[in-house]
């Protein structure tokens, strides 16, 4: 158990809908990262937040947005869903991105299926 | 453009033997490398890491080697155990500024046969 929690574990929805994925980082971790893993793909970095502020952006679609709240939990919002958005979405956390040794600890993921 | 490549999608070894997983990268700005292990239906689990200022890091049965000139790193598992069977991801972290995202390879499925 990494200490990172994600809800829900599974999500099935239809095209055009909007969903929210939730992540609670490990206690004490200030940074939250979101990754997408599609079929036959490695993990693709989407976005990072540090202590409530956006820190870095990756290959995140404009239909997707995220935020980190004062209690440090984060939500990833996916809207106007398409079939190709079906994937595993992982959240990871770390203490401080400026540290030299700064491993990211991953949650169990949310499996999104868009029908 | 894939900056981190794991060219072997799968590897099968006998219990007790050495497993060697390889990873190549193209971006010379990467300064920190990590290996993660992933079981089905679970998130990736951090295994071992190495800074670009080192060429070797060892932790129990796991050793990571880094060859900066070749932009190549490898993970050695000795001796391999059936419980090591999982997908192994190589990841690299960029240096400078606020860009601490990890760039992952596509993974290598390791199967350790009893």
Walkthrough of the structure:
The complex is a heterodimer of chains A (115) and B (114). Chain A is mainly beta and 115 residues long. Chain A contains no helices and eleven strands. In chain A, strands 2, 4, 5, 6, 9, 10 and 11 form a seven-stranded mixed β-sheet that branches. Chain A has a four-stranded antiparallel β-sheet with strand order 1-3-8-7, with no helix packed on it. Chain A is globular and about 35 Å long. Chain A starts with a strand and ends with a strand. With 114 residues, chain B is mainly beta. Chain B is 0% helix and 56% strand. In chain B, strands 2, 4, 5, 9, 10 and 11 form a six-stranded mixed β-sheet that branches. Chain B has a five-stranded antiparallel β-sheet with strand order 1-3-8-7-6, with no helix packed on it. In chain B, strand 6 and strand 7 form a beta hairpin. Chain B is globular and about 40 Å long. Chains A and B meet through strand 4, strand 5, strand 9 and strand 10 of A and strand 4, strand 5, strand 9 and strand 10 of B.
Describe the structure concisely for a colleague:
The complex is a heterodimer of chains A (115) and B (114). Chain A is mainly beta and 115 residues long. Chain A contains no helices and eleven strands.
Could you list some keywords that capture this structure?
heterodimer, A: 115 residues, mainly beta, 50% strand, B: 114 residues, 56% strand, globular
């Amino acid at each position: 158990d990494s200490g990172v929690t994600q809800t829900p574990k599974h999500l099935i929805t239809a095209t055009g809908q909007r969903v929210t994925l939730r992540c609670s980082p490990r206690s004490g971790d200030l940074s939250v990262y979101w990754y997408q893993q599609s079929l036959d793909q490695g993990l693709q970095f989407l976005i990072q937040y540090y202590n409530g502020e956006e820190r870095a952006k990756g290959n995140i679609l404009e239909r997707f947005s995220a935020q980190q709240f004062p209690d440090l939990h984060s939500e990833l919002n996916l809207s106007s869903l398409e079939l190709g958005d079906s994937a595993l979405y992982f959240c990871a956390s770390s203490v401080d991105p400026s540290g030299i040794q700064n491993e990211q600890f991953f949650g169990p993921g949310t499996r999104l299926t868009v029908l | 453009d894939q900056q981190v490549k794991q060219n072997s999608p799968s590897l099968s070894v006998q219990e007790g033997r050495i497993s060697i997983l390889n990873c190549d990268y193209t971006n010379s700005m990467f300064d920190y490398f990590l290996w993660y292990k992933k079981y089905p239906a679970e998130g990736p689990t951090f295994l071992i890491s190495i800074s670009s200022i080192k060429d070797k890091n060892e932790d129990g049965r796991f050793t990571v080697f880094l060859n900066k000139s070749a932009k190549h790193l490898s993970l050695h598992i000795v001796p391999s155990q059936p419980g090591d069977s999982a997908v192994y991801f190589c990841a690299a972290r960029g240096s400078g500024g606020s860009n601490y995202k990890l760039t992952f390879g596509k993974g290598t499925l390791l199967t350790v046969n009893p």
